[in-house]
Each structure stands twice: as C-alpha cells, then as structure tokens.
C-alpha cells in the first residue's frame, strides 16, 4: 500500500479526501477570511496562490513524496483546510504530518483533532508506519503546543534549518514524533478531546 495514496477517510463529522483543484475556492476563502497567509512563521498559501499550491502538492504526490488531503466539514460539505503526509520514506515506513492549515472559524472545534486521528490511525493501523513526524517553526508556539498535546515527543531542534528568502529569516525547526507503541495512548487522548467537542 503506497504511503502517497489518498483514500477517503471519515470520522467524527470530518472527511479527508484527495486534494484537487475543485477545493481551491473554499480554501482560498478561508485563508482570506482569517488572514492565515499573513503569519510570518508559517507557509500558508494565499488565496491568489491556492491553485499553484494545489498543483505543487499534486506534483509531489505524483513523485511519491506527498499525500495531500482536503479537510471537509461533513456538516456543510465545504473544504475548511488541508493537510498532508509529506517527506514520505517508503523504505523506512516513515511519514511526516504537516503542511496543514485550517480556517480560523473551525479551529478549536475538534475538526483538527479528527483529522489528526484519521491520519495517525491510517499511518499506524493500515500503513504499518514505524514513525510519524511533526515539524514546526521554533517561533510557532501554538503549533508546538498542539503537537505536544497530541502526545508526540520532541526529538530535537534543527538550528538554521531553512532560509526564507521572502523574509530574510532563518528557521530553527522543532521535530516531534510518535512511535507505534505510543499510538494507543495518543488515540485515547484524541478520542477524549473529540468527546469534549461532542463529536463522538
């Protein structure tokens, strides 16, 4: 089973489906509404650049390097965000979950927890992954806290890991991971969070 495949996944009122250009208008609207593309330490595409970003993700999928999903709110049927498996290593059965953005109106509603549940469940229970990684900018305190809340362990910090020519800044990247034996506890934590949001 290819790690770059994108079957439709459903749980707790959330659907992950193959990202494609039909999602561009919805995703462009949520990015514009929340000014998500204005946060300097993230790489959220702008509404104007959404088509190009979707094309980029699809090209990486064709190369076996990414599995891009749209996050669908099943209540409305609209795309409210996007997420991926990236930096895929088939040989090492390892993926990273990232390149994620979610509309501000849908943050704190359990949608992100459901999406993470679906991706982690697939990684460990269907794809037999040996490790699932999460990487974020040192300055992205919200993301770092959210990853830690999942139960992921911090592996370390890559100093001067990436250069952003648009801002002239260097990124220190914080790396976290979850291992197969940790998935049952992470799973229970996610289910408890979803219950609090009345999604179960």
TrEMBL record:
Keyword line: Acyltransferase, Transferase
Database matches in InterPro entries: Acyl_CoA_acyltransferase (IPR016181), GNAT_dom (IPR000182)
Gene Ontology MF term list: acyltransferase activity
EC number: 2.3.-.-
Pfam families: Acetyltransf_3
Domain N-acetyltransferase: residue ranges: 14-175
This protein's name: GNAT family N-acetyltransferase
Originating species: Glutamicibacter bergerei
Lineage: Bacteria, Bacillati, Actinomycetota, Actinomycetes, Micrococcales
């Amino acid at each position: 089973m290819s790690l770059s495949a994108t079957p439709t996944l459903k749980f707790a009122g959330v659907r992950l489906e193959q990202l494609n250009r039909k999602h561009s208008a919805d995703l462009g609207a949520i990015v514009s509404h929340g000014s998500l593309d204005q946060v300097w330490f993230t790489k959220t595409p702008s509404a104007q650049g959404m088509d190009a970003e979707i094309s980029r993700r699809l090209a990486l999928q064709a190369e076996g390097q990414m599995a891009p999903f749209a996050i669908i709110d099943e209540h409305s049927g609209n795309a409210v965000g996007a997420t991926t498996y990236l930096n895929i290593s088939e040989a090492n059965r390892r993926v990273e979950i990232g390149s994620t953005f979610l509309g501000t109106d849908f943050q704190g509603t359990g949608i992100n927890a459901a999406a993470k549940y679906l991706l982690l469940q697939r990684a460990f229970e269907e794809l037999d992954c040996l490790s699932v990684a999460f990487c974020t900018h040192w300055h992205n305190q919200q993301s770092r806290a959210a990853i830690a809340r999942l139960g992921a362990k911090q592996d370390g910090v890559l100093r001067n890991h990436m250069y952003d020519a648009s801002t002239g800044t260097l990124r220190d990247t914080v790396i976290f991971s979850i291992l197969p034996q940790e998935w049952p506890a992470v799973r229970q934590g996610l289910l408890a969070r979803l219950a609090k949001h009345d999604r179960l």
